[in-house]
């Protein structure tokens, strides 16, 4: 156990009930439960940042090189969460509904569009709370017309360009002070599938770490960030060969009142084409 890890058990299905409790919402028969330690500071808003393939073992390996995430773990809590699926779509559906995959029945993108299950952003919007979702185009289309801000990004662009755009859109959305925000980053997962090896994974993680530093400075201290993986790496030399399969989850708070909170960093702006 690391110095800032909190012993569980915790699961991805606990994320939506935690956010719902903070926002004063009721989820229909969730399988998960609120995470008590996430409720202690009385946050009013929630930002869920999903990092594709951020397994717990991977974060522990990367953490010495990830300054922003290391600081967030130091100021907040690092949780080891049980993963409910080794595939992105059912895992994200569980993160946003509090239901196990066998209960929400969403296993692919087509199923997400056709599902009668209401996810957390939809429930929040129906209750009159402002919501923002930033993810790949097909995922964002599920929410178009249902929430205030649904921003889609093409997954055909290079992964770092995708994550740069996700960072930019997330920062802009946070300036509008939504009660709930969901954002998604793909760089680590894409580096695995492109066969870039450990150094490629590390490069992708370093860029996402930079993005997280920008993002948390756009939200105030009443915003709880839940930064989590959807599944562990399932290919390449860093693949976990046996269970338990766990993802990392960091509970942290916005830092808008800290120094250097205005504007995007020079490095992010300079690299935009």
Question: Quick recap of the structure?
Answer:
The protein has 273 residues and is α/β, with parallel strands linked by helices. The protein has helices at 15-23, 36-39, 56-62, 67-75, 88-97, 101-104, 109-114, 120-126, 137-141, 159-174, 187-193, 197-216, 266-271, and strands spanning 5-11, 45-51, 77-82, 131-136, 149-153, 180-185, 223-229, 246-253. α10 runs parallel beside α12 (197-216) and α11 packs antiparallel against α12.
Structure report:
By secondary structure, the protein is an alpha/beta fold. It has one domain (about 5-220, about 235-245, about 250-270): 3-Layer(aba) Sandwich (Alkaline Phosphatase, subunit A), CATH 3.40.720.10. The chain has helices at about 15-25, 35-40, 55-60, 65-75, 90-95, 100-105, 110-115, 120-125, 135-140, 160-175, 185-195, 195-215, 265-270, and strands at about 5-10, 45-50, 75-80, 130-135, 150-155, 180-185, 225-230, 245-255. It has an eight-stranded mixed β-sheet, with helices on both faces. Helix 10 (about 160-175) packs parallel to helix 12 (about 195-215). The longest helix is centred in the C-terminal third of the chain and has 20 residues, at about 195-215. The radius of gyration is 17 Å and the shape is globular.
């Amino acid at each position: 156990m690391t110095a800032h890890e909190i012993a569980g058990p915790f699961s991805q299905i606990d994320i939506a009930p935690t956010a719902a409790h903070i926002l004063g919402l009721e989820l229909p028969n969730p399988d998960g439960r609120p995470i008590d330690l996430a409720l202690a500071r009385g946050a009013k808003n929630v930002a869920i940042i999903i990092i594709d393939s951020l397994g717990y073992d991977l974060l522990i390996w990367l953490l010495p090189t990830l300054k922003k995430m290391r600081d967030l773990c130091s100021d907040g809590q690092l949780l080891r969460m049980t993963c409910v699926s080794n595939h992105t779509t059912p895992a994200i559906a569980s993160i946003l509904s509090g239901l196990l995959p066998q209960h929400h029945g969403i296993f692919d993108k087509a199923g997400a569009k056709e599902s009668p299950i209401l996810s957390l952003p939809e429930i929040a919007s129906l209750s009159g709370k402002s919501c923002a979702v930033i993810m790949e185009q097909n995922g964002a289309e599920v929410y178009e017309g249902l929430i205030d801000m649904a921003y889609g990004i093409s997954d055909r662009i290079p992964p770092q360009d995708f994550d740069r755009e996700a960072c930019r859109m997330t920062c802009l959305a946070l300036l509008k002070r939504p009660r709930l925000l969901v954002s998604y980053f793909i760089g680590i997962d894409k580096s695995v599938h492109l066969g870039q090896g450990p150094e490629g994974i590390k490069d992708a993680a370093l860029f996402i770490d930079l993005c997280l530093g920008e993002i948390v400075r756009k939200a105030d201290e009443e915003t709880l960030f839940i930064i989590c993986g959807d599944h562990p790496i399932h290919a390449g030399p860093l693949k976990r060969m046996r269970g338990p399969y766990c993802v990392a989850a960091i509970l942290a708070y916005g830092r808008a009142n800290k120094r250097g909170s205005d504007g995007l960093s020079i490095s992010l702006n300079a690299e935009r084409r």
